[in-house]
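Re: export button greyed out
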Amino acid sequence: MKWVFISRMASRLKAEASFIFVFSGVLIFVCLNPHTINPAEWILYTKYLVPIGMAVWLFFSFRLHVSLFTSTPIHWIAMNDIMPNPQTIVFCQALIVFVCFFAWQLALAGIIAGAVVINYSAGWDLFTFLFPLYLIHFLLPFLWAWMIGLSAGAVYAYHSSKKAMLLVGVFVLWIIVLFSLEYCNPSFSLWINHRWPYIDPLFTLTFQKERVLIKLAYILSSIAVYGVFRSMRRSFAGLAAGVTLVIFVTFFLQHAQSKFQLDDILLANDAKLYQQLKHRDQTKNIPLYGYWKIKEIEVNPKSTYPIKITLSLHPNERTVRFSINEQFQIDHIQGGGKRLPFQQQGNVVQVQTNGAPSMTIYYRHTFGSTFYPLTSGVTLLPFEANWYPQSMDSTLYDIDSSGTLHSNVETKTCTRVNVIVGKEKYRWHGDHLPCLSVINGPYKQIQVQHTRFLVYKPFLTTTRNYMELKHQLVSIRNELCHVFPNLANTDYCTKEVKSISIIPKSINTTNLSLYDSTVADGTYTFYVDPFLDVNGIPATKHIQELAAFFIPYRLFENEQISLFAGLYLMEKLHIPSIGYGNRIAEKSSIDSTTWEHYMALSIKEKENILIQLAQERGKGDK
Amino acid sequence: MELKNVTLKHRRQLILHHCSVNLPSQSIILAKNHIRTDIVAKALAGFHPIDEGEIHFDEQAAKGKRNKTVFFVIPENYHQLWRNYRLQDISIWLNRPFQQSALWKKYRLPSHASIDSLTMLQRLIYLVSLGQSLNRTVFIFDQPTKHFDFENLEHFYHFLRHDFVDANYMILSNRIENGFTDLSIYQIHNAKLVAFERR
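Workaround output, generated via the alternate export path:
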């Protein structure tokens, strides 16, 4: 049994093997910290565990491979012609130990992911999300250490110990420099994470594939360094060539990596948007006019123009004016074979169409903001973001008295919503554009009882919880439609719950606001605090309470009604409270006496007050 | 073994120069310390190129096989070969059926024992038995007694006289030992292989 031999060889390295066991034990213990608020939080510990783990695995790999390579006399076997390719023996042995190493890592990934899933009372979906996270954040650096140990071991066994030590020196120095850069420079974040790992689109969950590729590039480069080192007869020539290669690879990969570090760009765009909104012209209700119709929409975040929208125009039209979210900057507009003059001021765009039958709007490539990112890794273009021309002007952003920027303030009415999920590129063309949402990123789609859930991956939970949320939304709808007969014929009361999206909010806004949901055409979207504590209480439970306040707000756009209705719904539908009601009330303009007085009322009295408030509001609207 | 006009150099060092000699089937070649015996051993076995001349092998001993498959070189550092391996592991990795020979039994070589646990002599015996299991009929030992203690040495002489008496072998060594007196002794002297003369 060949693997028995390998296990005997490994067991001879008692000290080294004990390091591996102790380190793995510590890794599991630390990663299973039960006091986390997010299931992906353990990838933060890469800051400490990856450097230590790499040292441990490098040492073990080196010692094991030296032991294997020096034990097998391949030159003697070849000289005596005992077997045709004696190298296959050591290759096979190295392969077996690598498989064992890999299996060990998979087991660790399974244990950590499984235990976190149990701790968070989540399901298989979360496991399939967490398992690869271990592979990306822990396995790959350890694999790198393993390969370095293997190459140094081969040089030690088949060349000289001096050459091997030189090679190890180059690699260790390389790793030290890389890790120093990572600790000192937050934008240089590849092997360790010392920032918020679960806040997208800024952080690590967005560009996982790219991270894997860059890490693999480092591993392959180290194999190339070994090859160069081995092929050079003189150690110092090998050293010079190896160091040159290392420097070249580091600069090249750092350059490639910087393309996926969009933190600074997105945050700068946020700041720019903030300033733009702060200093915008307060004159509202600029009339929008002109006949136009959207015929084609193309979204491709990798393109020079990430969004292209073609509109058909009336030939007699000389000027059109429409509205788009001011976050999106128009680069140019092409129509009738030439560039059309246009003016983009705030969320209003005026174009001199000069009788062109159609025009195409080209958006500038800016990567978007943390509110509505538009990158190859993550795209969040919900219909309510007004990311394509609108004929109705609406206030999307608001800066409150404390200087906090709120998004999603006013949302439009939609009778037909089309949500496109998981497509980096998307093209629509036709005559009747529905309310279009294009969402791509760390989201998982789940179908539960004819309802499509789109859940931010760290907030994944069990099917039972999704079903409970759906039932709660249906109950809220039934109750609201019953209490407020005026709503009976509205889209909200007549449409089934078709889709529920759970999306993390931007970190550049408040973590709780009445604007944090939209409802249209049976499509419910909830924007939740990215720092939501989902340990013990799943995201769906948080949303159950939030929905009781948010949905009435969207229906009535009145703070008092939404708060009172939320309280009423919680009591009537026995929605367990996490404390959002009080937090929303504290933030609101309603005084505490009114709030406490309302809370003290019976359920029937609360209902009566709600009906009265809704009627008053109805009269006011008239 | 017949050497015809053989010249052997190693890194500018002339080891043999136009050397012609007939070596009997059980012989010992002595060399001074500055001569690399491993190079001579490999050259005689055909595993190291010679600069000039020819080395012929007695066809009877070879029994029609190619020279390449006949020789079995046991180098000076044989105690480092297959370190950490158990005897049965070696067969597994060489993809050969595991066979216990008479030598194994006589010299008490347990299949489950690791090479490291064996005495130096047992290791040598194991390699010889491995060569025999590979049907090699000529053995070249490069300084086999270098790592032996007195007990190993006694057993080795016994092995040569009783268990290896019919074998074809050649020993390269830096010194003459009492147990080698039965063998034909040659020495490398002035880049020639000549019969050893006791002074």
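The mean pLDDT of chain B is 84. The button fix ships in the next patch.
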